[in-house]
């Protein structure tokens, strides 16, 4: 090889080497920048709400069926506590009180979950809780799940409830990440911990409940038998 060409080849190789090293560094940096970020949740506000709740990842990293089952068993008593199950009944009437008795005044689910004509939830349930014992609790979205997607909690074992929760045909087409966002950020769920005068709270506080649900998802979301 003539000397001239040799130098040209050497310089070219050197430049390639630099480019390679640069690329390697750059890609490393961008992966570490992405690690620890929440997987895309629906909408910025729910991602922020998740971050506020300390939820940092919603993707399954390891799968550990026993750990997932144990995590779901920890979360389960919240779902079947009166504050949650009163709006997730098996029939078409909401339930009331810590004994989950059928709602007075023959209130019914209706076609959209917000009651029937003349007996709409919003007639009595305002945007916020009314103070005083036995006064209607409130939230702008107050209502039951719609009849074609009842999302029943009452009478479900932990395994049954878990499988129902995961089934897109029964949960409104939600992914695991969206279920996690729902329990962490939805304000009807949040009402459970701000239920108005004279109503008991769910057996876990919300951060512990969300943490158990996150662990269930991260460990692969296996259901109790
Ligand atoms: C005032 C009634 C009401 C209360 C109280 C309520 N929910 Fe719901 N819940 C609903 C409605 C309505 C939907 C369906 C709305 C939707 O799909 O966004 C729903 C949907 C859900 C879902 C999604 C269902 C699924 O299968 O993925 C979960 C999970 C859930 N609720 C959990 C809870 C928990 C936990 C509590 C108690 C801390 C609670 N809810 C309290 C009305 C209520
Ligand atoms: C005629 C007025 C009225 C209408 C209409 C009405 N409610 Fe109520 N609701 C009340 C009152 C009052 C309470 C409080 C009862 C108490 O605490 O003793 C209540 C309590 C509840 C509770 C119990 C909360 C808890 O955890 O103890 C649920 C759930 C509920 N209503 C759901 C609904 C839904 C869903 C609709 C519409 C489909 C509806 N209600 C329509 C008056 C009404």
Question: What are the key terms here?
Answer:
two-stranded antiparallel ribbon; binds heme C; 9 helices; 45% helix; mainly alpha; 225 residues
Report a brief summary of the structure.
The protein is mainly alpha-helical.
SS summary, helix count: 9
- Spell the H/E element sequence: HHHHEEEEHHHHH
Strand content: under 5%
How far apart are the termini? 74 Å
Main sheet?
2 strands, antiparallel
How many beta-strand elements? 4
- Structural category: mainly alpha
Detailed description of the structure:
The protein is 45% helix and 4% strand. It is mainly alpha-helical and 225 residues long. It has a domain at 63-102 and 148-218. The strands form 2 sheets. Strands 1-2 form a two-stranded antiparallel ribbon. Strand 1 (95-96) and strand 2 form a beta hairpin. Helix 3 runs antiparallel to helix 9 and helix 7 runs antiparallel to helix 9. The site of one heme C has 25 residues, from helix 4 and helix 5.
Topology:
Blueprint: H1 3-34, H2 44-52, H3 65-79, H4 82-85, E1 95-96, E2 101-102, E3 115-116, E4 119-120, H5 121-124, H6 158-166, H7 176-185, H8 187-191, H9 206-218
Antiparallel strand pairs: 1-2, 3-4
Helix pairs in contact: 3-9, 7-9
Bound molecules: heme C (HEC) (2 copies).
One heme C (HEC) is lined by residues 78-79, 83-84, 87-88, 113, 142-145, 151, 165, 171-172, 174, 179, 182-183, 188-189, 191-192, 202.
